[in-house]
Each structure stands twice: as C-alpha cells, then as structure tokens.
Design goal:
7-stranded mixed beta sheet; alpha/beta
Length: 164
C-alpha cells in the first residue's frame, strides 16, 4: 500500500512537528485537535517555524508555501477518513489513545496504519486495543521534530510484516 495521506492526532509541540515534516516530505497531511483554538495554536506554531526558516535563508517562501499547502486541520475524526497512516501524538494515557483509535476505526479504511509517538507506553498494548493489531506500531520522533532527522520505528508483537 502506498501512503499518500498522513494524519496526525494532536497539534502540540510533537504533533505540530510531525505534521510539518510529513507535509515537507510531500504527503498530504491532516492534523486533528480537540478544538479549533488548540488547532489554530498548533498551526500557528508550524507557520512560525517555517517563516523563521525563510527569514534565515534555510528555505524559500515558495518551499514554505508548498509545505503549508500540503497541510490541513480538523477538529473531527471524520476529517481523517482518507488517511493511510495516522500518527498519534496526544496525551500519554492509554485510555485516551484507545478512545481516539476507536473513534478513528469507525471512519478510516481497513488498511489504515495506526502508529503512536509514545515514548513511555507499550506499543503492543496500544495495538492490541484496536481492531487492527496487525496494523499498529510506533513512530517515535525526537524533539525538535523538524530539526532531528531521526525516528524510532517500533514493531508491536502483533505488527504484520507488510505494516512494518
């Protein structure tokens, strides 16, 4: 399966960075937050970082605009229905993450991969709490995401070879 659209749950410090690098890599990227005010704050964080890159000569205004054009936001899980890969970067709470994945399972395709950016929770436990344990795993990004060209790929005990 080719990944065309990436979803990011959470637009805080880590989620905003993950959304930014995904959009910069050329993927259509949809970031979801719990309300519009928090979403706007996260999107402003991304724009500020990109504007800083233009000011410092690290990228052109055209490059910034292409990245921003690849990026959109939503406050609804249904807004992520076309995502092929969803990376969650929300609060470090198994129940909250499980609720989010359960809500997403109702709207995304059967092949959508669920990944967590968690640094402290068990990836196998998270994958097992979904209806697609073979399509679960971890993508642990390092902070600050746009500057750290490093991501830890974590395979759950249930992750299929195709997903991995």
């Amino acid at each position: 399966m080719a990944i065309k659209t990436v979803g990011v749950l959470g637009c805080g410090l880590m989620g905003a960075g993950i959304a930014q690098v995904s959009a910069a890599a050329g993927f259509r990227t949809i970031v979801r937050e719990v309300n519009q005010a928090v979403l706007d704050k996260g999107m402003a964080r991304i724009r500020k970082f990109l504007d800083g890159g233009v000011e410092k000569g690290k990228m052109t205004a055209q490059q910034r605009d292409i990245i921003l054009a690849n990026l959109s936001g939503t406050t609804e899980f249904a807004g992520m229905k076309e995502c092929d890969l969803i990376i969650e970067a929300i609060v470090e709470n198994v129940d909250v993450k499980t609720e989010a994945f359960t809500a997403l399972e109702k709207v995304v395709g059967a092949d959508t991969i669920f990944a967590s950016n968690t640094s402290s929770l068990c990836i196998t436990e998270l994958a097992a709490k979904t209806g697609r344990p073979d399509k679960g795993g971890g993508l642990h990004f390092f902070n600050p995401v746009p500057l750290m060209k490093l991501v830890e790929v974590i395979r759950a005990l249930t992750t299929s070879d195709d997903t991995y």
